[in-house]
Amino acid sequence: MDSLNSNFAIYLHFFAGLFAIINPIGMIPIFIGMTGFYSSKERNKINIIANIAAACILIVSLSIGNIILNLFDISIESFRIAGGILIISISISMINGTLMNNLVKKKNKNKGLYNKENISIIPLAMPLIAGPGAISSTIIWSTHHTNWNNIIGCIIVILLFSLLCWILFQIAPYFIKVLGSTGISILTKIMGLLLMSLGIEFIIASIKVILTKIL
């Protein structure tokens, strides 16, 4: 029973970390802005493809995270610190409101480059959903929980998270009506604070391991 509760806590923490770093609620206005000129049928197709592609990207990152680090001879602690710094930088932009503004500007700048054939993969699947922060965080988890039971459990979590993203994007028009831009902005800032805490936790844990080895 203790082992079951421990594994559940791991999966819950992993899910919460993905939710904070990807912030699907904060991306709802971006999704609407990018797909607003498509029909409902086309928007639904884009939503499905984007979340399947993002799930595949994160699962690959989770599954071969150790191989990637070993290939470049990068220590787990170094990668966790680098990932923590990246996560903190993203959280700061979420808190001060520049992250979504930059995404909107980038979307408007490249609006003519996207069509319904490729918008699902770029930029929706990557980098909006499976961005550098999410990929880094997933690789960090793969190095921390190397047991295959935990890897499979985390893959299930990724699939469930992708399902949640799909649902949120499906009801996006209604969600915006209920929360409004102010409500979404507040939630984004809260996610930013949680994300910053997660990044700091990665860094502190890695420094502790390094100091333990030195001493």
Describe this structure as you would to a colleague:
The chain has 215 residues and is an all-alpha fold. The chain starts with a helix and ends with a helix. The longest helix is centred in the last third of the chain and has 43 residues, at 172-214. It has 10 helices and no strands.
Quick overview of this protein structure:
With 215 residues, the protein is mainly α.
Spell out the key features of this protein.
215 residues, globular, 84% helix, mainly alpha, 10 helices, 0% strand
SS elements, strand count: 0
The helical percent reads over 70%
Q: Which residue ranges are poorly predicted, with pLDDT under 50 across at least 5 consecutive positions?
A: none
SSE pattern: HHHHHHHHHH
The overall average pLDDT, rounded, is 80
Task: Identify the quaternary structure here.
Answer: single chain
Please state the CA-atom Rg, rounded to the nearest Å: 18 Å
Report the total helices. Answer: 10
Strand content: under 5%
Largest sheet: none
Amino- and carboxy-terminal Cα gap: 36 Å
Describe the protein's topology.
Layout: H1 2-22, H2 28-35, H3 40-63, H4 65-71, H5 76-95, H6 98-109, H7 120-129, H8 132-144, H9 148-170, H10 172-214
